[in-house]
Design a protein that fits this description.
Elements: H1 6-15, E1 18-24, E2 36-42, E3 47-52, H2 55-71, H3 80-99
Antiparallel strand pairs: 1-2, 2-3
């Protein structure tokens, strides 16, 4: 399977009417001990987070989670796992906003 470039992932996200937020943290504010975090936010409130050692790794991690959600049957999209994923990502977006962390 070919790995997509970040600009290709971002274009697909925009095509789905979603948005991508990428931030670089310092040592005190990192997500899961990783310096980069990426959050994909869909219309309607669903959000998916990823973290990584590099910007592209964080984007790809969030993208893979988003793709698993999109591939899941409609009935299973409302289970606890996806509600948890959405909650984590939305909390992270709020933390970014509250701390004034700038997007990359």
């Amino acid at each position: 399977m070919m790995k997509l470039r970040e600009d290709e992932i971002e274009a697909l996200i925009k095509f789905d009417r979603a948005s991508l937020t990428v931030v670089k943290y310092d040592d005190l504010t990192s997500l899961a001990g990783q310096p980069y975090a990426a959050i994909i936010k869909r219309e309607g409130g669903r959000a998916f987070a990823g973290a990584g050692e590099s910007r592209i790794e964080a984007v790809r991690t969030a993208w893979e989670t988003y793709q698993r959600f999109m591939d899941a049957p409609i009935e299973s999209r409302h289970n606890g796992y996806w509600l948890y994923e959405t909650a984590v990502a939305n909390v992270e977006l709020q933390r970014i906003k509250n701390m004034g962390i700038q997007q990359e």
